[in-house]
Amino acid sequence: MSAKTCSTLERTFDKCLLRIFESSESDWFRSASYFLILLDSFQNLLTLEVF
User: Fold this and answer.
1) What is the pTM assigned to this prediction?
2) SS3 track for the chain
3) Which of 3, 20, 22, 28 is most buried (CB neighbours < 10 A)?
């Protein structure tokens, strides 16, 4: 995969992390969705690092 793809994944990761911390507790459903996207991005980054 290209470096561009990797940086896009890192930006997604950062954006999701920021949104999780910024959201209120009443917004737990949105936080959960961002957390799942975050995990997916992290898994993709790990895959890129390993292979």
Assistant:
1) 0.44
2) CCHHHHHHHHHHHHHHHHHHHHCCHHHHHHHHHHHHHHHHHHHHHHHHHHC
3) 20
